[in-house]
Amino acid sequence: MSHIIRSVKKEFGTHLFDYLVLITGGVLFLIFLRLFEGYKTYSFMIICLFVGFYIFWGQYHHTKIKHVRLTHIVEYILIGFTVLFLMLLLIQP
């Protein structure tokens, strides 16, 4: 367990700006989603924008650390679309 904590601290310390951008984007996503609660079209657009931001952020992050691989990009795309699908299930009713 301590190995995981050390790895996370090292990763955050090394790439603090990248993670601050991701956290800021996530907080803004939640704020806008709350502001437009009840408007399904706007909520869908906000979710799509965040998923696009997340995929772009992942590509940017791995390009910056010179560790870009197709599997990383596919992973970010799959996670993004999984979140999109789950969020759509939540805003549908």
The helix fraction, in percent, is over 70%
* Rg: 15 Å
Structural class category: mainly alpha
Q: Give the percentage of residues in beta strands.
A: under 5%
How many alpha or pi helices?
4
Question: Which H/E pattern describes the elements?
Answer: HHHH
Strand segment count: 0
Domain count: 1
Shape: globular
- The N- and C-terminal alpha carbons lie at a distance of 40 Å
Biggest pleated sheet: none
| Poorly predicted tracts of residues | none
**Average residue pLDDT:** 90
Describe the structure.
- The chain is an all-alpha fold and 93 residues long.
- The protein has one domain (2-91).
- Helix content is 86%, strand content 0%.
- It has helices at residues 2-14, 16-35, 40-64, 70-91.
- Helix 3 (40-64) runs antiparallel to helix 4 (70-91).
- The chain is globular and about 40 Å long.
- The termini are far apart.
List keywords for this structure.
mainly alpha
Give the secondary structure arrangement, pairings included.
Layout: H1 2-14, H2 16-35, H3 40-64, H4 70-91
Helix pairs in contact: 2-3, 3-4
